[in-house]
Design brief:
- The protein is an alpha+beta fold.
- The protein folds into 2 domains: 85 residues, no CATH class; 93 residues, Alpha-L RNA-binding motif (Alpha-Beta Plaits).
- Helices cover 17% and strands 25% of the residues.
- The chain has 4 helices and 11 strands.
- Strands 1, 2, 3, 6, 7, 8, 9, 10 and 11 form a 9-stranded mixed sheet that branches. It has a two-stranded antiparallel sheet with strand order 4-5.
- The longest helix is centred in the C-terminal third of the chain and has 12 residues.
- The protein is globular and about 45 Å long.
Length: 208
């Protein structure tokens, strides 16, 4: 689906309004239409700015199924960690490691897969969200992304990241009272983002 509430004329993708009826909220950071995973929905512009500005360093965790065997690309992890030149601009250093295939529901539509080429899974954590960044990074090291899932967003306050636990694809929930308190502290703490304005602090949803 599109990470927006307004459909696009002629697009084959549905939009968030097809799944979420809460008024006057929008996504704090987008996912590509062919990706899956966690979105934070808010009506608070300060929160959106705080979470998407790379200067605040909010790590986002992704699981990426890639085409190819990571073991046969021994330098790939190091290159991903160190930063890559993508469209003329170097990415910030990332965290990257190989993981076992996670337990995920089947993707609809399914990924393209060639029997002659194996697939592997990477966990990547980024502090920025440039257009199709994970896909461009894995392609640059010879491991094109087939399936991409954002599984967590770190509030960088010492607590556990917001994650997809208990959320099925296309479903959403209100933030818990504890999460609301953490968001409030995040927005009222000193920093480049300033103090919070009005608006509902947030909801989480599982896309894809």
């Amino acid at each position: 689906m599109l990470s927006q509430f307004t459909p696009e004329a002629g697009s084959r993708w549905r939009c968030l309004a097809d799944f979420i009826t809460v008024p006057e909220v929008y996504a704090a950071g987008r996912l590509d239409a062919d990706s899956e995973g966690l979105l934070l929905l808010t009506s608070n512009g300060r929160l959106q700015q705080r979470l998407t500005d790379p200067s605040f360093g909010h790590w986002r965790r992704y699981w990426a199924q890639v085409e190819g065997d990571i073991v046969s690309h021994p330098d790939a992890i190091r290159q991903l960690q160190g930063g890559l030149l993508i469209q003329g601009q170097r990415t910030l250093p990332a965290q990257a490691c190989m993981i076992d295939a996670p337990q995920l529901p089947d993707r609809d539509p399914p990924i393209r897969q060639r029997q002659s080429i194996p697939t592997s899974w990477l966990q990547l954590e980024l502090r920025e969200g440039r257009n199709r960044q994970v896909r461009r990074m894995t392609a640059a090291v010879g491991l094109p992304t087939l399936r991409l899932v954002r599984v967590a967003i770190d509030l960088m306050d010492g607590g556990p990241p917001l994650n997809l636990h208990g959320l099925a694809a296309g479903c959403w929930r209100e933030l818990s009272p504890g999460e609301e308190q953490r968001i409030h502290k995040l927005l009222t703490s000193p920093g480049r983002g300033g103090r919070a304005g009005g608006g509902k602090s947030g909801r989480t949803g599982g896309g894809g």
